[in-house]
Amino acid sequence: AIELAMDSVVKIFTVSSSPSYFLPWQNKSQRETMGSGFVISGRRILTNAHVVADHTFTLVRKHGSPTKYRAEVQAVGHECDLAILTVASEEFWEGMNFLELGDIPFLQEAVSVVGYPQGGDNISVTKGVVSRVEPTQYVHGATQLLAIQIDAAINPGNSGGPALLGDRVVGVAFQNLSNAENIG
Q1: What is the DSSP string of the chain?
Q2: Which SUPFAM superfamilies match (predicted)?
């Protein structure tokens, strides 16, 4: 399952410029952020809304490749912190696999989180067990929706990466608890 994920998870590079609420006639300075995403059916990439929020330019890179491809943001759901990207380049899709969505995991089931956390340029895999499944306040959208808590490290850059149970996606990494250790 992890081998399948290696050919499905991408690193996302976003240049964004958010609005200035103190000077509404101009935007704040541009900033660059990075996150993760994964390929789903229909040649689409699923990631977090906060990874591409206020984007002006978005690129994606496949695992093991130095080439970055231009991505277009097709849909953003800020309330659920999810976004869908597409890539027009046929070259990008060569060798890419898509991941299928699975069911909500049970407590104590082992999951793997795949992504590109800060501190390195290569893909990272962390494992943990499901410790809680309940509605939680989402930081990005300020909405209370279902969340699956795991005891694996999720760091900035992991956002948008899949949480896998076997070969199915059972969640998307999106936030950690700031006052706790190894809870995502």
Answers
A1: -HHHHHTTEEEEEEEE-PBPSSSTTSBPPPEEEEEEEEEETTTEEEE-HHHHTTEEEEEEEETT---EEE-EEEEEETTTTEEEEE---HHHHTT---PEE-PPPPTT-EEEEEE--TT-SS-EEEEEEEEEEEEEE-TTT--EEEEEEESS---TT-TTPEEEETTEEEEE-----TTSSS--
A2: Trypsin-like serine proteases
Is the pTM higher than 0.85? The answer reads yes
Tokens coding 64: 């093991």
The enclosing domain of 70 has a CATH number of 2.40.10.10
- The residue range of the domain holding 131 is 109-173
The pLDDT tens digits of the residues spanning 105-121 come to: 999 999 999 999 886 78
Q: Looking at the structure, do residues 163 and 122 belong to the same domain, yes or no?
A: yes
Q: Is residue 180 part of a domain?
A: no
How far apart are the C-alpha atoms of 14 and 43, rounded to whole Å?
20
Q: Are 16 and 63 within one domain? A: yes
Q: How far apart are CA 92 and CA 51, in angstroms?
A: 20
